[in-house]
Amino acid sequence: MGGNVVFWVNGGISRKDVLNFLYRGEILLGILAGQVIEEYYSRKGDFTNLVVFTPHSLYVDEETRRKERERLEKDVKNVNEIYIPSLGKIDSYEFKGSYQYIRFWIFLNLLKHYLEGNYRVFYCDITQGLNVYVDALKEAFRSLVVFYNLVNLGKKEKNREFYMLYSDPIINRSTQEAQLYDDVELKVKVWFDTPITSPDKGFADKHNLEQDELRLLKNYYRAYRAIRYNAPGVVLTFGYDPPERIEETLRKLLNRYLELYNPGDIVQEKKLYEYPLPQDPDEKISIFLALALYWRISKMLSQAGVCENREFTVDDLNKFSQVYDTFGLLVNKDMLERDTKRFENLPADSEWRPLGRLVNSTASFTPRSKDKLKADPGARRNFFAHSGMENNIVCVRRREDGALVFKYREDFYDVLNQFIYEDER
Question: N or C: which end of the chain has fewer CB within 10 A?
Answer without folding.
Answer: N
